[in-house]
Amino acid sequence: xxxxxxxxxxxxxxxxxxxxxxxxxxxxxxxxxxxxxxxxxxxxxxxxxxxxxxxxxxxxxxxxxxxxxxxxxxxxxxxxxxxxxxxxxxxxxxxxxxxxxxxxxxxxxxxxxxxxxxxxxxxxxxxxxxxxxxxxxxxxxxxxxxxxxxxxxxxxxxxxxxxxxxxxxxxxxxxxxxxxxxxxxxxxxxxxxxxxxxxxxxxxxxxxxxxxxxxxxxxxxxxxxxxxxxxxxxxxxxxxxxxxxxxxxxxxxxxxxxxxxxxxxxxxxxxxxxxxxxxxxxxxxxxxxxxxxxxxxxxxxxxxxxxxxxxxxxxxxxxxxxxxxxxxxxxxxxxxxxxxxxxxxxxxxxxxxxxxxxxxxxxxxxxxxxxxxxxxxxxxxxxxxxxxxxxxxxxxxxxxxxxxxxxxxxxxxx
Length: 414
Prior knowledge:
Blueprint: H1 2-16, H2 19-48, E1 54-60, H3 66-79, E2 85-89, H4 96-105, E3 111-115, E4 127-130, H5 135-156, H6 161-167, E5 175-176, E6 183-184, H7 188-222, H8 225-230, H9 235-267, H10 276-303, H11 307-326, H12 328-333, H13 338-343, H14 350-360, H15 366-394, H16 404-413
Parallel strand pairs: 1-2, 1-3
Antiparallel strand pairs: 3-4, 5-6
Helix pairs in contact: 1-9, 2-9, 3-5, 7-9, 7-10, 7-11, 7-14, 9-10, 10-11, 10-14, 10-15
């Protein structure tokens, strides 16, 4: 046991001293913190930013839409005096479109809008051309057009648009935490991305660090350093020490990133999304998930002499691990669907799918949490048994890399 601890400490100490580890510990949390505070600052800055007046040329074939359109633009200019739109009414002429395109291309106009005669009936298509692709400006001009069309339609139906606007005015909804009865801030984006953030955290901690184990093992084997190590420790002590050391590295990253996530959630007033329950369950799923992958990679790495050989053998597993990353939105929106539940019982993606489901739905059945954790630990024991057999035979083997069927044969024969 003492030798295993020494190997684990050597592996941990050698990893945490690397620049890559320091950058992963410091850089990613710094990006998260900068994103939290930077987004808030950018929103305030954007509200105060002075944008040059944007001139819009309007060709109104209906003869009725320019006035309500101008009213809506004036209302916007009064509320946002530093982000104004200026309207220019252009007479209806056969060749007006060509001239307007030239003016937009030359920078004289920001955009032009052509309102066809049948637009009020819903048959016509409005032509909008502008210099840039700014999302907010485009959405604002679309709102101007749709608002003006609605106002004229209300007038034709002898309906007061002011009364309609008052009737459609949205009510204020306060979200209350059922546990504390306190009002909590509604942040749709944070609620949507929190499950993905937890899944990505486990993905980086599990697969990112375990890949480092594979790389270091193949490097030591190719440099014959592994032979020196085996003169002092047994193959099982070496494999166990490497796995334990890298698991400690993953735990370090998990604690740092989880702490930053918790702090960021508190700053965004969505602390209920990153609570003790989610963090504890993330830790419980990380341990068996990492041990499973580390044992698998240790066994594969012991039989390979080059990294490309190991990567070729791990390609099917890599494809499998990408399933939660690809379908994360579906899994988060439908955490109790049959597909979501079925994917929860497929190691090695069980930790990713389960933490995604738990963050999306805090009422995930306890029996599913217990059974998936039990399945993971059973698979860990089985993988350690197989990896031990392969590692003991393959760590000193050189030459052609074995195929997957040959690995299975080695496990069965030993």
